[in-house]
Design goal:
Blueprint (H helix, E strand, L loop, with lengths): L9 H21 L1 E5 L10 E5 L6 H8 L5 E5 L8 H8 L2 E3 L6 H12 L3 E4 L16 H10 L3 E7 L5 H6 L5 E6 L13 H19 L20
Parallel strand pairs: 1-7, 2-5, 2-6, 3-4, 3-5
Antiparallel strand pairs: 6-7
Helix pairs in contact: 1-2, 5-7
């Protein structure tokens, strides 16, 4: 049955309020953190936070420094990890089964937005494990089309796979998160196959805006396609 409302258990809400400042403090101890563009974040109402995803540190960084308490989706296979799995459950991350159609997941995503909550997603569908971005998953465009809420592009860099090792050596790497202005989508057109092409184009449009917030070496498959926003 489709979800008509979304609400996290009280225990999860309390864990979030307790651990968010802890993670924010840990990041500031281990690294130099620079966050810009928070003036682009809506003061209220639902919206989507779309991030690039290089390593497992990106979602925690974004959630820790986001000015509102955001919901988030994450790959289901990460829930089986010894360390990450319990943390994902404590925060109430919504599991995503990649490469599979999941009607309940979509119902949950839209219920989150109807409840007026911000939602963090990684349009690539998982970590790129490399500096360059991968192409967005086409299903993300369907969410953008149906949700009809602002989509904020967020570029994150410095969270390389060796971040933890560098931090332990006392290097304090520079981690940067840049929040862009909401993406404006062209009017919807087409049906059937044309609509599916359009959804991929919308997903790619968000990634091109994210690329515009990142150094050129992070653009990956979107090299030469970045849309730069005014500072």
């Amino acid at each position: 049955m489709p979800l008509t409302e979304f609400r996290q258990p009280l225990g999860i809400e309390l864990c979030r309020w307790a651990f968010k400042p802890v993670f924010r403090g840990l990041f500031r101890v281990l690294a130099r953190v620079r966050v810009t563009g928070l003036e682009n974040v809506p003061s209220h109402g639902p919206y989507v936070i779309a991030i690039n995803h290089i390593s497992l540190y990106d979602p925690p960084l974004a959630l820790a420094f986001w000015p509102a308490m955001a919901e988030a989706v994450g790959a289901a296979d990460v829930f089986r990890k010894k360390f990450q799995g319990p943390l994902l459950r404590l925060y109430g991350i919504i599991p995503v089964h990649r490469e599979a159609y999941d009607r309940r997941l979509l119902d949950t995503v839209f219920a989150i937005l109807r409840a007026g909550r911000p939602l963090l997603i990684a349009p690539e569908g998982g970590r790129s494990h490399a500096t360059g971005m991968r192409r967005a998953m086409p299903g993300v465009g369907y969410v953008f089309e149906r949700a009809l809420v602002p989509v904020l592009p967020v570029g994150i860099f410095g969270t390389t796979a060796d971040f933890w090792q560098r931090a332990r050596r006392g290097e304090r790497p520079l981690l940067q998160m840049r929040v862009g202005q909401p993406v404006a989508f062209p009017p919807l057109t087409g049906i059937g196959a044309d609509r599916r092409v359009r959804r991929q184009q919308d997903a790619d449009l968000v990634m091109r805006h994210i690329a515009g917030l990142l150094p050129a070496e992070y653009h990956g498959v979107y090299a030469g396609q970045a849309i730069y926003q005014p500072p």
